[in-house]
Specification:
With 87 residues, this protein is mainly alpha-helical. The chain contains four helices and no strands.
């Protein structure tokens, strides 16, 4: 038999949330979304400097672009898991 706390946690998970719980959840989602936007902006802005970074680090331009593309894919996956939006 489940403990009372586990039953309560299950029922609270599926019950309608209070306004305070909704506010906390919305604030958490806004923070995640803001972080995704910031990271995406930084990655896209870094494309301009790839040639300089490639010269300084002796990495190929293709490798840097692959890293940036992988990071963008990770951000798109985070957006899909958190918000159900497919990019």
């Amino acid at each position: 038999m489940k403990k009372i706390d586990e039953n309560n946690a299950y029922s609270r998970k599926h019950a309608q949330k209070t306004p305070f719980e909704k506010t906390i959840e919305n604030a958490r989602k806004r923070a995640i979304l803001a972080q995704i936007y910031e990271d995406t902006h930084n990655i896209l802005a870094s494309y301009e400097h790839f040639a300089d970074v490639a010269k300084m680090t002796s990495m190929s331009l293709e490798t840097l672009e692959k890293y940036a593309d992988d990071a963008l894919i990770e951000l798109a996956n985070a957006m899909e898991t958190e918000f159900g939006v497919s990019a």
